[in-house]
Amino acid sequence: MCLAAAVAGCGGTGGGGAVPSAAAARTGASAVADRGAPRPPAAPLVLPGPARAEEETSGEAAARKAQAARAVLETAARWGLARPPLPAPPPPASRPELVAAQGVKLANGLPPVVYRVPTDERIVFLTVDDGAEKDPEFGRMAAELGVPLSTFVADYLARSDYGYFRNLAAQGDAVNNHTINHRNLKVLGYGTQREEICRQQDQLEEQIGVRPRLFRPPYGEYNEDTLRAAGSCGVEAVPLWNEEAFPDRMEYRYEDQRLHPGDIILTHFRGPDLWPGTMPDLLRKVVDEVTAQGFALARLDDYL
Ligand SMILES: [Zn+2]
Q1: What is the rounded average pLDDT of the residues 40-47?
Q2: Cys-Cys link to 304, which of 23, 145, 147, 237 (CB 3.0-4.6 A)?
Q3: Are residues 143 and 66 in the same domain?
Q4: Does the pLDDT at position 97 exceed 70?
Q5: What CA–CA distance (Å, rounded) separates 121 from 119?
């Protein structure tokens, strides 16, 4: 709360340092007193009119904030979380340029391969692959908790219902490329690899309405042909992963068995026929683990 806001714009959005003197002059003597001169020793117990109006507004804002906090707690409890997810910081204004670092493989003219996004923020990214299990509860839970997803979809699994992925895209989740047939690209020639990747670029553009910028090779298996083929049809980066999540556990690549800033977590669209739980069970496990380690889930596509 800044009672001098009307005068100097403190806490406001504008200003940029230079307070126009004409504006200061219009507000009169009290304004001048607020701007730098020592305050009177005893502030009045009852604030003057305009300030009191601002005070009431702040009270209402505080009430709204408290109500929002209660809603967040209720939402987290309803989905069975130990505690609400930590809010992610605002995304960068533009995607940071990737430099060679641990977790980033750069090669001239090819899309970078990224296991971990270079960042100092305590954020990690959840990526969901393949597309077999199309559980609407999963999308609803992610949206209600404010957890952003980056999905990597293989056509042979998704094509029975692209509408499911359109709904995810409509709520702000990204639908990215995971090839047509989910084959091990490494054993295929350049032409076949290009078919697998670039046809799925076209298919997703047609089905979802957005041409993917990110591509993940099935099984994380790739060679230089893969990157060349991907780059040739508009892929800008190839995110892999450092952790894999299941409904009952997380598996860590590194011995410290911890998350690190910028880590990419892999999981799959799978149902109870394939692993011990539902998609909401899976998301609960991920969010609880991420929150317990003091991280927030951010949107991979804002950073890569
Ligand atoms: Zn896959």
Answers
A1: 48
A2: 237
A3: no
A4: yes
A5: 5
Mean pLDDT score across all residues of the chain = 86
Q: How far is the CA of 185 from the centre of ligand 1 (A)?
A: 12
> 175 C-alpha vs ligand 1 centroid, how far in Å?
14
Look at the chain and report how many structural domains it folds into: 2
Indicate if the pLDDT at residue 31 is higher than 90: no
Spacing, Cα 219 to ligand 1 middle (Å): 6
Spatial distance between the Cα atoms of 129 and 126, rounded to a whole number of angstroms: 10
**Alpha carbon of 100 to ligand 1 centroid (Å):** 26
CA of 273 to the centre of ligand 1 (A): 17
Q: What is the pTM of this model?
A: 0.80
Domain extent at residue 272 = 99-302
Asked if residue 90 belongs to a domain, the reply is no
Give me the sign of the Cα torsion angle 58, 63, 65, 66.
positive
Measured in Å, residue 6 CA sits from the centre of ligand 1 at: 56
218 Cα–ligand 1 center, Å = 4
Asked if residue 110 and residue 52 are part of one domain, the reply reads: no
